[in-house]
Specification:
By secondary structure, the protein is of the alpha+beta class. The protein is built from 2 helices and 11 strands; from the N terminus they run ααβββββββββββ. The protein has a single domain, classed as Jelly Rolls, CATH 2.60.120. 15% of the residues lie in helices and 34% in strands. The two termini are 15 Å apart. Bound molecules: fe (ii) ion. Fe (ii) ion binds next to strand 8.
Length: 213
């Protein structure tokens, strides 16, 4: 079992970020207030909501203007870290911070049927997009890679099911952190594991947080 955060052996890579105080706390509060407005932009239209959420993230996440609490920026030993930053009391959205140490990444995955907007907070990440190809009569599915981008600080992208299959990884020599806003609480998703035949096996995964929220 992972030790309490205060005794965590895992480093934070972003040393000048302290527990929010003064301006940083105000910036975090401002992000949440703007996000509250953004998710009400158009309750029936995920595309407009995602655009509004993306604008908020891009406006708030700037190089040299840190505002995330140190507890959200610790790397994890085995896999990328997944930390809860904010859970909307009305259940409309949640904000998660993920921390990617060098070489860490995800398999191909979906987002449990939720829209998602992701923005780089620190470092750089690689995102590969895939098209899902059902194979009638088989348990396996197939994927075709449709794109790849390298994203840096303040760069954001939106994903709306069913066009949300992707991988994220950090092939760079410095840790990275990303802020993810989901259209609800994403406690489940599907991952896809490549088999020797080239097809992918769909595996449901329950999700939890590293910061124990
Ligand atoms: Fe994702």
């Amino acid at each position: 079992m992972r030790p309490p955060l205060s005794d965590s052996p895992y480093p934070t890579f972003f040393d000048h970020t302290a527990i929010p105080c003064g301006d940083t706390r105000a910036r975090l509060q401002s992000l949440i207030e703007r996000m509250d407005q953004a998710v009400d932009e158009c309750k029936e239209c995920e595309k407009r909501t995602c655009r509004a959420v993306k604008e908020v993230l891009e406006a708030h996440i700037q190089p040299e203007e840190p505002f995330l609490p140190i507890e959200c920026l610790r790397t994890s030993g085995n896999s990328y870290a997944r930390n809860l930053l904010h859970r909307d009391p009305r259940g409309r959205y949640s904000i998660i911070v993920m921390v990617w140490d060098q070489g860490q990444g995800t398999p191909i995955h979906d987002h449990g049927g939720l829209w998602c907007v992701e923005c780089v907070y620190q470092g750089r990440i690689r995102v590969k997009s895939f098209d899902y190809k059902d194979v009638p009569g088989h348990d396996m599915v197939r994927f075709e890679q449709t794109g790849q981008i390298i994203a840096g600080i303040g760069e954001a992208g939106a994903l709306i099911p069913p066009f949300d299959y992707h991988t994220i990884d950090n092939p760079f020599d410095k840790a990275a952190a990303t802020v993810h806003v989901y259209g609800g609480e994403m406690d489940f998703c599907n991952t896809f594991e490549q088999q020797s035949c080239g097809g992918y096996l769909k595996i449901g995964r329950d999700l939890c947080f590293d910061n124990n929220n």
